[in-house]
Amino acid sequence: MNFEHYEPGDFYDELFIAKNQPRPEVIPLIERINSLPPDEILQRQEVAQQALFKLGATFNVYSDNQGTERIFPFDVIPRIVSAQEWQVLEAGLKQRIYALNSFIADIYDAQKIVKDGVIPADLIATSKGLLKPCIGLKPPGGIWCHITGTDLVRDKDGQWYVLEDNLRCPSGISYVLENRRVMKSAFPKVFETMGIKPVDDYPSHLLDTLLNLAPESLPNPTVVVLTPGTYNSAYFEHSFLAQQMGVELVEGRDLVVADGYLQMRTTKGLKRVDVVYRRIDDDFIDPLSFRRDSTLGVPGLMDVYRSGKVAIANALGTGVADDKVIYAYVPEMIRYYLQEDPILQNVPTYLCWREKDLSHVLSNLETLVVKAANESGGYGMLVGTQSTLEQRQEFAEKIKANPRNYIAQPTICLSRVPTIVDREFTGCHVDLRPYILYGKDIYVHPGGLTRVALKKGSLVVNSSQGGGSKDTWVLC
Fold first, then answer.
1. pLDDT in tens, the chain (476 residues)
2. Structure pTM?
3. What DSSP state is assigned to residue 280?
4. 133, 374, 409, 440: least buried by Cβ within 10 Å?
5. Side-chain half-sphere of 167: how many Cα atoms within 13 Å?
6. What element of type H or E holds 148?
């Protein structure tokens, strides 16, 4: 099994310029795979998948009635990003995160960007991610979005676009680290010959980011990872990161507010907690301030947070910038707060609350991708090119009932990477989620999670919708 018969097709292929013509930077990998004995690559694929199974790299699907836990599918053919290309992506992501952080800080304070007419006031007021209890908050160092996963796509011409920003509880970094571990075993000689940026230092960078939130007067601050529990879709990641950082993994029932501080129950009594890396959505984190039916959070946590006696990452309220309608204004945020042009462009976006855009969207549903403003994981979405007339009619009614809640974008011909499907190499569509940490400085972890649509022709890469992952190699 080799690439002799692989057809890149009429898409941007991440590894090939044309049939039997690999991109210069990936030639060592292609030559290595082509030199392997027949079926050797299939054996390495199986070994890699089994290794991930033994490592416990799983995720949960809430709607799956055949069992909640699944192994995250993995494909052994990596995605490769050149050093020059990565420099541009890194600069663009740093610029974007700085602007988004400035926006969140502004929205919970003076709202200058609204008063200056850059973003309509009504869009902010009606955003489900806007949390009124967070108005006036001053998080440590003025940093709100400490950990971000920004989804990037590349179109038919090789142009990069930002698809969306994830600033609440972005997941997936554990798969990046585990994928790399198994890939080093699958292609040891290639790693020796190609200069590939390492990824295994992410936990130390994350811990530094979290410790940066604690007051300097504390000699040994206590950091915890707060998880909703074992049934959460990303529980594997929560436990993995806590173990890698050497900190406690806790649930809401392990914490209590006492003597004005957040404290952790231990066998030796209560212990003060100084920094919380929360993997719980805002609405569930404190039943006294948000959802009163929540059993996942800690009663009174918001009061401790507002008093500055505990730090939380990401800060509560960052969901206002996760709103897909607000996403459309990020280029304007960059110009407003930084006085710079965006390095990375958004996907062109129609806002259904605008009458002209609404008319266009309703008339062209068969060619557009429509998304609900606050859904994720591939839910609340219509891919027009792969939809039925009945689905489009149903979605049209939803849009007309609540135009503010929907955006639409042209269908991007996502780039592809050779992928093993039915014992042969097939071009499958991919996106890329780099992870950005905002501590003393903004750090962009090299590479990120390449998600791949394992169903032939599918554009949906989410794991909950049948997608898998690949290792991402950023060259030095």
1. 889 999 998 899 999 999 999 999 999 999 999 999 989 999 999 998 888 888 776 655 544 444 455 677 899 999 999 999 999 999 999 999 999 999 999 999 999 999 999 999 999 999 999 999 999 999 999 999 999 999 999 999 999 999 999 999 999 999 999 999 999 988 998 998 899 999 999 999 999 999 999 988 898 999 999 999 998 888 999 999 999 999 999 999 999 999 999 999 999 999 999 999 999 999 999 999 999 999 999 999 999 999 999 999 999 999 999 999 999 999 999 999 999 999 999 999 999 999 999 999 999 999 999 999 877 656 678 999 889 999 999 999 999 999 999 999 999 989 999 999 988 999 999 999 999 999 999 999 999 999 999 877 777 776 666 689 999 999 99
2. 0.93
3. S
4. 440
5. 30
6. strand 147-154
Domains within the chain, CATH numbers bracketed: 348-411 (3.30.1490.270)
Distance CA 193, CA 322 (A): 40
Nearest to 173 by CA among 147, 198, 140, 196: 147
Residues 320, 129: Cα–Cα separation, whole Å:
4
Closest CA to 428 of 438, 414, 442: 414
Secondary-structure percent of the chain, ordered helix, strand, coil, rounded to 5 = 35, 25, 40
